[in-house]
Amino acid sequence: MVVEISTIMMSRPFLGQEKVQSSILNISQTSVTTRAQDPSVIIEDYFWYLASYPQQSNFNQINQLIWFTKILVVVVVPEHYFVPNFQRLLPPEMDHYVKMEDGKVMPIQEMLKSIERYNPEHLKVIEAYVEDQAKDNKYDLEANLACLKLYQFNPQMMNLDVTYTILLKSLTNFPHTDFVLCKCLLLPAQMNDDSVKEIVYLADILEKCDFTLFWSRVQKNPQFFKKITGFSESIRKFVCHVVGITFQSIEKQYLVRLLGDVDDKVLNAWVKKNGWKEEGEYILVAQQEGNIKTKHITEKIDFENLGPLMANCL
């Protein structure tokens, strides 16, 4: 087996190509006999070894590790080439460590639980984390609120693009009240921005469940929402939630409009996902009578408690 490491050094080296190549070759000698000569497993063993290293490392070594995972590693075996899946190899939050004043590093989730969440030096890391949420279709309300709170304390550091991302991500979590929490942390400069006003208007439309109007507003500027991965799907999930607690049956074409003029394939996917049934031109949602539960309330008032009240009425 021949292992070749092709590094893209850009502007700075990190560990030295010879040292890394020697390390992988040493690990390969022990892994070949125990892991069925699978080259992908050999490389994964080495990456997991490195992934556990930063817990005892300083911040510079963390940066070296993060940069190292972005090099191109090509394992060459007879008639086989592959590039390892680095996204799968990296542990959670690998790209979101913050440096403390004492030199230690901390995952961003741990930092958000401490007083360090108010440290403006961490703002760039939090902003990068917000952008990754939009790209990877993930959501962390605490990080987003921490970012807006730092903007409140440091108006000169305010970033409108990040503000848009936070507000749009909060829309995707309807019917929860995340958008209200985010809105309460906005500065006047943010509230007076035209794009922020449009997002606030969209939130009002969603609260009123005027989904047809909502989709028409979205279609006027689709590029504004494209950076939020899964935005339309998240809104459609909320639409189905509202339909599920409101209708017993709904016209198919009306449901199509509520979902944003989707095609039959998308419509059938949401019908199947929610356990609904198609009957001709209608979609059978649920028998709402079965969801209504009667509750008997029994009130007991002792005469001793009622006597003083009657005496005051005389």
Automatic annotation (TrEMBL):
Component of the eukaryotic translation initiation factor 3 (eIF-3) complex. Pfam families: CSN8_PSD8_EIF3K. One of its GO terms (cellular component) is eukaryotic 48S preinitiation complex. It comes from the Eukaryota. The keyword Oxidoreductase does not apply. GO terms for molecular function: ribosome binding; RNA binding; translation initiation factor activity. Component of the eukaryotic translation initiation factor 3 (eIF-3) complex, which is involved in protein synthesis of a specialized repertoire of mRNAs and, together with other initiation factors, stimulates binding of mRNA and methionyl-tRNAi to the 40S ribosome. The eIF-3 complex specifically targets and initiates translation of a subset of mRNAs involved in cell proliferation. Component of the eukaryotic translation initiation factor 3 (eIF-3) complex, which is required for several steps in the initiation of protein synthesis. The eIF-3 complex associates with the 40S ribosome and facilitates the recruitment of eIF-1, eIF-1A, eIF-2:GTP:methionyl-tRNAi and eIF-5 to form the 43S pre-initiation complex (43S PIC). The eIF-3 complex stimulates mRNA recruitment to the 43S PIC and scanning of the mRNA for AUG recognition. The keyword Protein biosynthesis applies. GO terms for biological process: formation of cytoplasmic translation initiation complex; regulation of translational initiation. This is Eukaryotic translation initiation factor 3 subunit K.
